Amino acid sequence: MFALLAFVSACGDKKTEKSVEDSSKIAVYTEMEAELTAPPNVPAPVGNRVAKKLKVNMEILEEEGEMTDGVKYVYWTFGGSVPGSFIRTRVGDEVEFHLKNHPDNKLPHNIDLHAVTGPGGGATSSFVAPGHEAQFSFKVLNPGLYVYHCATAPVGMHIANGMYGLILVEPEGGLPKVDKEYYVMQGDFYTKGENGERGLQPFDMQKAVDEDADYVVFNGKVGSMTGDNALTAKVGETIRLFVGNGGPNLVSSFHVIGEIFDVVRVEGGSLENKNVQTTLIPAGGAAIVEFKVDVPGTFILVDHSIFRAFNKGALAMLKVEGEENKGIYSGKEKEGIYHPEGGAIQTMPQGKKVPAEVASSLKEKIAFGKTSYMQTCFACHQAEGQGIPGAFPPLAKSDYLNADVDRAIDIILNGKTGEIKVNGQTYNSVMTRQNLTDEEVANVLTYVYNSWGNSKKTVTATMVKNRRNGGH
Ligand SMILES: [Cu+2]
């Protein structure tokens, strides 16, 4: 019995991955039109379908788009999106590729698919002038996730303008089933103006050569997958991300804050690594990452070269809904005051009066508030409440702050995510909830309201307490 079980499991573990030579001999009988999708969506899995002649009809479009609020950029695209349309094939498919260059385009283009076995990955055979269509065919031999990109000179410039995407080659029988699949691709962008400078921004060749990126983003723009556009999932689901990196220059340290990748198909190939925190994705490379979401919340996708995430745009969100699981993640259980010399840990008087902090006058309130501000808010909103453009909104003369006191209280109590407009600028980032007593929240907001040209309101601990209890 034992021997039999061991035998069965040994067989079960063996993957029947075909050799490249075998794949080249797979016959195709029927043909079908490939489903192409714009990010973050992917076409339906291949499942058990047989190898076919797969017709891919892709159109190149040069189009103006928005890099971030108020910043326009002319993207060159495969199929109208950055990254370009996702192509899903299986080993043995014979791809008949039709590449159309729209007559309104200004330049010739081509395509180099890393899934192609042949000179230039198809580049020379697919070179196509505006108003023309090029056709070539290739047999898909190796399973994996591959980058495709334009390879027309100057190659770097075509890639920098968004001409890249992913083509997936599934093994026979398809990849294992998961609940949700998404398409995420990083790219770095180089503009004449600095990050956030408004208007139509042309490509900057010198910055590209210097690898001095103004934007590093997922799916072609800042905030492509944040707020209302966030990826979604439910607790208990298994997520598969097809992650690519178009470059042109930067290598991605891909990480999801608060998750561990159960499986990474390293570099998009057949090697499976398990229990991975951060996976490296080279320019012109890819990875397939899989993880089960066990608890609800917002999980942040970043390039862990972290200034790119918080200052250049390489940040996306996965919103997971469902039941809490306190056994896996408790939330904050306790907060104490830590006395290095004192020994005992005291309990923070939550929402109760802290004798030393009860101000007897407005002047004192403001003084206490300033102390809290310099300890808690200053790192993000800066000493003079000026904020950091594109990352942290200003509190100085903030129309958003001055319009609604209750809303400001709520933000400090609960934190804030999603798009907001402050003095005409859009912010779409994350402020974590601040762990302050009612008195401290009242003081810090009174300080902020009475500084830097704001509306001089006074916030009391009672007002904060009402908001904390959900009062309206
Ligand atoms: Cu091109």
Structure in words:
The chain has 472 residues and is of the alpha+beta class. The chain is 20% helix and 33% strand. It contains twelve helices and 26 strands. It is elongated and about 85 Å long. The model is unreliable at 1-14 and 342-356 (pLDDT under 50). Copper (II) ion binds at residues 76, 109, 150, 152, 158, 163.
Name the descriptors:
binds copper (II) ion, 20% helix, elongated, 472 residues, disordered N terminus, alpha+beta, six-stranded mixed beta sheet, 26 strands
The number of helical elements comes to: 12
- The averaged pLDDT comes out at 90
Percent range of helical residues? 10-25%
Q: Which small compounds were modeled alongside the protein?
A: copper (II) ion
- Rounded to the nearest angstrom, the radius of gyration is 27 Å
Got a strand count?
26
**Secondary-structure content class:** alpha+beta
The profile of the biggest β sheet is: 6 strands, mixed
- Range of strand content: 25-35%
Which outline best applies? elongated
Distance N to C terminus: 68 Å
**Contiguous runs where pLDDT drops below 50 for at least 5 residues:** 1-14, 342-356
Offer a concise description of the structure.
By secondary structure, the chain is of the alpha+beta class. It has helices at residues 2-13, 20-24, 123-126, 155-160, 205-210, 306-311, 362-376, 378-381, 399-403, 405-414, 438-449, 461-468, and strands at 31-33, 36-37, 53-68, 71-78, 86-90, 94-101, 112-113, 133-139, 144-149, 164-170, 180-189, 199-200, 215-218, 231-234, 238-247, 252-257, 261-265, 272-276, 278-281, 285-292, 297-303, 315-321, 336-337, 346-347, 416-422, 425-431. The termini are far apart.
